[in-house]
Every structure is written in C-alpha cells, then in structure tokens.
Structure to design on (227 residues):
C-alpha cells in the first residue's frame, strides 16, 4: 500500500544548526509530495511541495528535493531559528486515484536558543 | 480570509453523549476531510468527501458519522461518545485530490470524553 515514513522525534537542535528531517515513501504510481508544519495550538499548513521527480520545493529557508530513485523527500534548513519549533509532517497524494492525503506520523522539532 | 472554520474549539463530553463537530470552508473546494490527531499516532483519516453528496470511510470511521451538507459544510457526528474518542479533531479541504493541490486545515477541536 501507499505510505509515508518519517524519522521519529523529538529532534532537538541549537539555534543556527543545520536541520534534516528524513522522509521516505512507498507509492504505486507517481505521487506529489508535501511537507506540512503545525505550530503549537494550530492546524497544519503547507510548508512546501514538489509534484514530480527532481523538483525542489522551498519556502522560509526550508528545502526538499523529490528523489524518485531513493523514494525520498528529506526536509532541510541551513540555519534553524527558535521560531521553527513545531511538528513537521511529510505527506503524499496520488494523481488518478480516488484517494486521500497520506501523512507520516510527524516529527516534533525543538530549537534551543 | 476565513479559510476552514471549525466549531467548537474545545468540548468535554460524558461517555454516551452525542455531539456534532461543524466545519465550513469558503474556498469553493470540492474535497473535505476529517482527521483525528493523537500523540504518537500522527493524523488518521476518519471520513472524507470528494464532492457534495458523497462521503467515504477513511482509516478509523467506527463510532463516527458525517454529512456533507453542501459544498461548504462537512460535519462530523459522534452518536455515543467513548473515552477512546478523546482526541484533537481537524477538518481540512482541498480543491481536488486528483490535482495534487494542498490541503487547508482548520484550527482543530480538542475533545475530551470522560
């Protein structure tokens, strides 16, 4: 079946550190890939997306590249800030399929000042 | 811009009570979803609706019913609440699943069943 696996949290980093949150997927067909972010007490909001292989999504200093050969969509940021503390969800959707959005379990990120 | 609006934000129920969670979107989206979020479990889909008049079960539909009242509104009903339904519930909408567009989420309803 279709699924998304992302690294377990929590991840704790110091401000200005480099961030990587791993995400891999299993899908039949050609998925679109997403990263959502959930700040405390709020709903999820889209952070970035990529709709085909080798596309790079970017927003707010975060980046992720759609790697079909490794079925991955790892989230990276060069220098994190305290305000990046949140829960991050990797997700996929599939074209031509009457299906739902498939989410990973989320990774909680803590940034220390 | 309102986006996706959920009511109520907080609710405490006694076991066996019923209630309806309301959700409305003002973006003219076709698809709407109900998720529950539990610690360590991520988001689990309860029900979804691809268009007005259609609904489909998700991963965890037992104990819930839904109504897609019109294109704007998608409600979730708990007929007889159980402690296992204590969770945070999120409504979401998207233009169309097949177009791979993003989902927009409400702020959530924190439900406690005692």
């Amino acid at each position: 079946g279709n699924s998304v696996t992302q690294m377990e949290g929590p991840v704790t980093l110091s401000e200005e550190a480099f961030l990587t949150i791993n995400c891999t997927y299993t899908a039949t067909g050609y998925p679109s890939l997403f990263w959502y972010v959930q700040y405390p007490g709020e709903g999820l909001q889209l952070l970035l997306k990529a709709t085909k292989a080798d596309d790079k999504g970017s927003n707010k200093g975060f980046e992720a590249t759609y790697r079909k050969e490794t079925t991955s969509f790892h989230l990276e940021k060069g220098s994190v800030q305290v305000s990046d503390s949140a829960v991050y969800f990797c997700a996929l959707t599939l074209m031509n399929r009457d299906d739902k959005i498939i989410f990973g379990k989320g990774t909680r990120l803590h940034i220390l000042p | 811009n309102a986006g996706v609006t959920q009511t109520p934000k907080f609710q405490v129920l006694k076991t066996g009570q019923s209630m309806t969670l309301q959700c409305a979107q003002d973006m003219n989206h076709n698809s709407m979803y109900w998720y529950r979020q539990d610690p360590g479990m991520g988001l689990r889909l309860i029900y979804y609706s691809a268009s007005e008049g259609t609904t489909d079960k998700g991963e965890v539909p037992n104990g819930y019913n839904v109504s897609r009242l019109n294109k704007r509104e998608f409600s979730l009903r708990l007929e007889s609440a159980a402690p296992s339904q204590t969770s945070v519930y999120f409504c979401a909408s998207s233009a169309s699943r097949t177009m791979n567009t993003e989902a927009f989420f409400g702020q959530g309803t924190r439900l406690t069943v005692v």
Summary: The CA atoms of residues 6 and 95 of chain B lie 18 Å apart. Chain B has a mean pLDDT of 92.
